[in-house]
Amino acid sequence: MFAFRPRRSLLLATALFGSVCAASAPSWGQTPIEGGTLIYLEQQAHTNLYPPAGGFYPNGGVLNQITDKLTYQDPKTLEIQPWIAESWTVNPENTEFTFKLRPGVTFSDGSKLDAASVAKNYDTFGLGDREKHLPVSEVINNYDHSEVIDPLTVKFFFKKPSPGFLQGTSVIGSGLVSLATLAHSYEELGKATAIIGSGPFVVVSEVLGKQLELVKRKDYAWGPKLLAHQGPAHLDGIKYIITSEDSVRIGSLLAGQADFIRQVQAYDEPQVVAQKFPIYAAPTKGVNDGISFRPDNALVADLKVRQALLHAVNAKEIVGTLFSANYPVARSVVAETAAGFVDLSGKLTYDPALSAKLLDEAGWKLGADGVREKDGQKLALASHISLPQPQNKSVLQLVAQQWAKIGVQYTLLSGSPGVVISDNLDASKTPVFVVEVGRADPDVIKSEFYPTNRDALLQKGGLSKKPVTFVDPVLNGKLEAIAAETDRVRRLALTGDVQAYLLDQAYEIPIFEEPQVFAGAPYVKDVAFEAVGRPSFYSVWLDKH
Amino acid sequence: MAKYLISRIAQAALVLWAAFTVAFILLQVLPGDAVMIKFESPDLGLSASQIAEIRSAYAVDQPLIVQYGKALGNTLTGQLGYSIQQGVTVGELLRTNLPPTLRLASLGFVLAVTLAVGIAFLANLTPFGWLRAGLQAVPALFVSVPVFWLGIVLIQVISFRLRWVSVIAPGEIEGLILPTITLAVPISAPLAQVLLRSIDAVQTQNFVSVARAKGASAAHVLWAHVARNAILPVLTIAGVLLGELLAGAVVTETVFGLNGLGSMTRDAVSSQDVSVLQALVVLSAAVFVVVNLAVDLLYPVLDPRLRRRFEVGP
Questions:
Q1: Domain span including residue B131
Q2: B262 to chain A, minimum CA–CA distance in Å?
Q3: C or N: which end of chain A has fewer Cβ atoms within 10 Å?
């Protein structure tokens, strides 16, 4: 969704349209102008370009230009469309997937993108490579092995039904790379020039941590068939420049030194809009920005306490105070644009009187200092701030103020990155945790909450060795069921069911739908975003300016 | 002289070893490490056994004393190791980042000295009392300007408003103008302050009165008689300011989005990338040691009285 915001009513209208697409400044049927280099300012340098590490936005922003995927997920309908795979078949159990590949596709090193190379890619993403430290992709579950049927046909076998796999072939983490790239170890894939893909752009030079130069592939002829634009990219190239300072990124754009920038904070939006520069707020279509509880910590083990905390959070006030219309108030665990969204705002009411009553019932009595106590213990919670989330510190500070009103103390911790990671794996130190993942498939809820995925609730037997009591087999069963359900309609129904369960158990408090906010110069036309908000510069062109 | 040099070099080696060891201990005392930061983030979803495997591959599960011995041995033989976070060798990181910082720091230092000398001389030579008072207040002003703020103001005014220079993808020289000014201003302040003071002190000495009595002009006296004597304390402070220069580079490089040792340090600190930090610590310590040694050796060159003392005894 983009908003020029000349008037508030127009904005509201755009917001009301629900499944807002991430289309760019429309070019009104103009003929695209060929050539030019796009200057793109990124806030952070990429860390690693092994495709499954593409979830980190700076990584995904590069990978999306240099790699192609087997399938293309239409960002509007979320349907899976052909790309490098011309067609595919799936057995009824969803354990075998056969893909027919488009002929004539090559990687930028000249090697062929054929069944053998696709098989090697997925063997690596699905099983990992211990020797080379290449981790397993988060989106590929239950992978068993691959089989090359003929040079253009590849088949994948799964140990258990894996209906999420088809969507998994369309995501940033499933970008196809050449065999030469997969021969490197994980550590060596920090160098962008080592990543050989088949995408419309190729990395030609890199200044570590500072700058990347991409040029277009003149022979590119295999973009997704669904797109209006076919053939090579319009741009000659893209220059990525890491500019960590917010004010410098925005100032450069407005002063005409840059064409497109990532990460515009809500408080900076007005100055961009005032100069008639378009803002692009791409929805991330996954688990909303919010906080979860770790019931392994006795303070939040009681359902009543968690419910009290849930009803004491006023998400509307937080969004109204800190954000703009590009940040819708959450109405469920996942965003409205996510697959399987169900409006559960009825379970998320702000009701501090109810909260106080629930805490009284649970035996937490107000102490002299305004903090509730039970058996000599204070109801004092803590969490770390999550740096990637927009204005997370301010968000959590507002939550702390709202919880203080019902007599709950909430402290924001700080520490070195090592401390943050080890504290976050320890429910006794962090009974509260910040959640958010973007992925346009029902599996996204599993990614966030399943014990062997991100394990936001810290269950026993999950990522951390610390939890001693808490495990919720009901929740885990529901998450596994989504991952295994082959019928699309039933799968969406199960997704709705698990959203309700998470909120009924008050495991999580969704706050707002997190967008990726970009801004561009008015002459930058036809910017597109993949399903979870990474920019695609394939169709972009620069108008006269 | 030779004996003096040998003892100074031995001292320098000791300082380097101590810097290396203290840095090693401090980095180990910090909770967590680079492997943990990179691989134990829940986004990767690695299991405990996979993480254990990675830890052993990086040899971070070995006893500390073994790790220390290895690290020391490698550093002595010039193998600086591998950046866990960036995935490249520390040598390559240094090759990319050392030249731009050296360029920025030396330009910044030259500009800082020019500014300081300009302020001090002008303040001494001006016939106007108000200008002198004004110039003498400049160092206090410069030292209180935060580098971060100065950088942003320069960018906003010079680049975005006046559009004189570009900060995004600028030309080679164009890109150095604003960062150099940003770095030089706070460094010039203590230099100017010390120079002003020491010129004042030297001005009161007898040989200056003699020179004046002989009819030399104020400028000649300042240049030929006072400056040379006033420069010694400035030289001492210049050696110390080198640290400021490195610290200033961290902020300047962040604000201007430049690559260099500053941004490399920032990234390594935030990811506890031990090999990179060790290399940076040893490098900075070496620079300090060399510069201070050079300063000490320059004293007798500039001041013949010190030279005589040298020849007589230690």
A1: 100-272
A2: 12
A3: C
Give me the count of residues in chain A. Answer: 545
Q: Which residues pair with A262 in a beta bridge?
A: A518
Distance spanning both ends of chain A, measured CA to CA? 24
Residue A87 has what DSSP assignment?
A: E
Per DSSP (E only), the strands in A159-222 are: 201-207, 211-216
Query: CA–CA distance from B48 to each of A157, A218, A453, A466 (Å)?
Result: 26, 45, 12, 12
Q: How far apart are CA A543 and CA A26, in angstroms?
A: 12
Q: Which two tokens stand for residue A74?
A: 């239409």
**Start-to-end Cα distance in chain B:** 9
Structure tokens at B6: 């040998």
Q: Which of residues 217-276 of A touch B (CB under 8 A)?
A: 239, 241-245, 247-248, 251-252, 254-255, 257-258
- Rounded Cα distance, B233 and B226, in Å: 13
> Cβ of A244 and B254 within 8 Å?
yes
Please name the helix (run of DSSP H) or strand (run of DSSP E) that holds residue A508, with its range, or none.
strand A508-512
Touching A: B residues 90-149, CB under 8 Å: 92-93, 96-97
Distance CA(B218)–CA(B221), nearest Å, equals 5
SS (H, E, C) A301-357: CCHHHHHHHHHCCCHHHHHHHHCCCCCCECCCCECCCCCCCCCCHHHHCCCHHHHHH
B130 occurs within a structural domain: yes
**Residues whose CB is less than 8 angstroms from the CB of residue A473 and which lie 6 or more positions away in sequence, other chains included:** none
Number of domains in chain B: 1
Write out the H or E segment, with its range, that includes residue B199: helix B174-203
Q: How far apart are CA A534 and CA A538, in angstroms?
A: 12
* pLDDT under 70: residue ranges of chain A: 1-29
């520390």: which residue's tokens?
B90
Inspect the interface and report whether the beta carbons of B40 and A425 lie closer than 8 Å.
Answer: yes
pLDDT score at B309: 55
Extract the tokens encoding A164: 């999420």
Q: Rounded to the nearest 10 degrees, what angle do helices B90-125 and B261-270 cross at?
A: 120
pTM over 0.95, yes/no: no
- How far does CA B293 lie from the centroid of its chain? 15
B152/A514 Cα distance (integer angstroms): 29
Residues of A in contact with B88 (CB under 8 A): 187-188, 190-191, 208
Nearest CA in chain B to A451: B45
- The beta strand positions in A371-430, using DSSP E, are 372-374, 377-378, 380-384, 409-413
**Predicted complex ipTM:** 0.78
Chain position carrying tokens 């490089």: B253
Q: Alpha-carbon distance B217 to B225, whole Å?
A: 11
Q: Kindly state whether residue B10 falls inside one of the protein's structural domains.
A: no
Using pLDDT thresholds of 50, 70 and 90, give the confidence band for residue B208: confident
The domain that holds B139 is classified in CATH as: 1.10.3720.10
B59-to-A171, A252, B33, B39, B275 alpha-carbon distances in Å: 34, 44, 12, 14, 13
Does a structural domain hold residue B73? no
Chain B residues touching A258 at Cβ < 8 A: 168
Residue B252 covered by a domain:
yes
Give the residue among A45, A417, A42, A194 at the shortest CA–CA distance from B264: A45
pLDDT of res. B76:
84
Give the H/E segment covering residue A292. Answer: strand A287-293
Q: How far is residue A309's CA from residue A296's CA, in Å, rounded to a whole number?
A: 16
Give the Cα separation of A535 and B47 in Å (integer): 31
- Max mean pLDDT range (A7-21, B62-76, B146-160): B146-160
Give B-chain residues touching A425 at CB under 8 angstroms.
Answer: 40
